[in-house]
Amino acid sequence: MAPKHARVFPTVDIVLVVNHASVVLIRRAYPPFEDRLVFPGGHVDEGETTLTACVRECKEEVGLDLKPDIFELLMVLDDPSRDPRPGHTLSVVYLALIDSSIAAQIRADTDAKQVLVRSINDLAEEEMGFDHWKIIEKLPKRFQRS
């Protein structure tokens, strides 16, 4: 019997760290996790790399047209139950450092009800949607809570 391979849907999540202390989050407008805070991101389109999807989603979700070279790979989230919708999503998480002048240009779009810049130290796990709290926990030491 041939092995059964997972049918995985690639997604990206984008961690925009503002002034080494805050992160850009969106409040979801739709289920799942309606009204919860999540990092901007979304599905990778056919024929697109995850980095290209990251740049596109950043523009679509928060209105920032950022260059691909500012992003670095942070982690991969691949728990089959990470998204309650049907299917198995695997998220490639990218991180970029921005300053407050860039953050001042953000605006809510697509499935974002609201865009927020929140201090990393003021976030609580119960506010977060999906498995995005794991991203907060994985942030490099220079951004972590003391």
SSE arrangement:
Layout: E1 8-18, E2 22-28, E3 37-38, E4 41-43, H1 50-62, E5 72-77, E6 88-98, H2 100-103, E7 112-119, H3 133-138
Parallel strand pairs: 1-6
Antiparallel strand pairs: 1-2, 1-4, 2-3, 2-7, 5-6
Brief overview:
This protein has 146 residues and is of the alpha+beta class. The chain has helices at 50-62, 100-103, 133-138, and strands at residues 8-18, 22-28, 37-38, 41-43, 72-77, 88-98, 112-119.
Could you report the average pLDDT, rounded to the nearest whole number? 92
Low-confidence stretches: none
State the helicity in percent bands: 10-25%
- The beta-strand count equals 7
CATH architecture: Alpha-Beta Complex
Would you write up a description of this structure?
With 146 residues, the protein is of the alpha+beta class. It has three helices and seven strands. Strand 2 (22-28) and strand 3 form a beta hairpin. The longest helix has 13 residues, at 50-62. The model has no long low-confidence stretch (mean pLDDT 92).
What are its keywords?
146 residues; 33% strand; Nucleoside Triphosphate Pyrophosphohydrolase
